[in-house]
Amino acid sequence: MINLKAMWRWIIGWVVWFFILPASVVAQADEGILILSPADQQVLQGVIEVQARVSFDDVQTYELLFGYSGDTDERNLFLLTQGNSIPDSQLRHRWDTTLIPDGDYRLVLRVYLINGERREAVVETVRVRNYSVVESPTASGLVLSTAPVVPTPPETPTPLPVTSTPPKPNPGSVQPVQWTTSVLRSVGITIVLFVILGGLIRLRRPKKRR
Fold first, then answer.
1. What are φ and ψ of residue 191, in 5° steps?
2. Scanning 44, 51, 52, 76, which has the fewest C-beta atoms within 10 Å of its C-beta?
3. What separation, in Å, do the N-terminal and C-terminal C-alpha atoms of the chain show?
4. What is the pTM of this model?
5. To 10 degrees, the CA torsion angle through 195, 197, 202, 206?
């Protein structure tokens, strides 16, 4: 005879084992890792600080990633930071949102435990608005910014003073001083030659006999 009471106990046990127990384990795991800031739907501007709390003692590695909101493809996730330990179970990372285009993004914090398990926390949508207008007029209270973007005015080039450099003399050209010296030297040599020639003529003349 089949014991219906024992059978019901067996069925309830298997239901608890397969459904209720895994759900409680997942809930405990979600409590062990949490992104505190930024919050979902928060507007981000400038350099913001990502804050998270991780309560696991057996953390082997962790990584903080971001991707486009609504895109769950692992290949479209980009690494923000990673490490091997989380001091005091508090993770802090400064994220410069000015380096990426404006848009809606998702944040993913993954923790890898020593036993090989992976736990993660996700913020589905954060709105980066550095160069575009915030859509909702009530979203001004949701803006998170620790270093707002300040437009840098264009630098005005300072003209350098122009200093005129005298041209170097052409080695092949004859300077006035050199020309005068050459003329005087030629005149002197000519006079000396005339004097010498005159002396020679006088010496060669025959003396008149008396």
1. -65, -45
2. 76
3. 193
4. 0.54
5. 180
Long-range contacts of 112-115, Cβ-Cβ distance < 8 Å, separation of 24 or more: 112/59, 112/60, 112/61, 112/62, 113/56, 113/58, 113/59, 113/60, 114/58, 114/59, 114/60, 115/58
Query: What is the C-alpha to C-alpha distance for residues 146 and 138, in angstroms, rounded to an integer?
Result: 20
- CB 176: neighbour CB atoms within 10 A? 7
Cis peptide before 171 (omega within 30 of 0): no
One digit per residue, the tens of pLDDT, for the chain of length 210 reads 555 555 555 555 544 344 443 433 333 335 689 999 999 999 999 999 999 999 988 899 999 999 999 998 999 999 999 999 888 889 999 999 999 999 999 999 999 999 999 999 999 999 999 999 998 655 545 666 665 444 445 455 555 555 555 555 555 544 555 556 666 777 778 887 877 877 777 777 665 554
One-letter identity of residue 132: S
**CA distance linking residue 24 with residue 154, whole number of Å:** 58
Integer Cα distance of 110 and 119 in angstroms = 6
Task: Please compute, for residue 196, the number of CA atoms within 13 A of its CA located in the half-sphere on the CB side.
Answer: 6
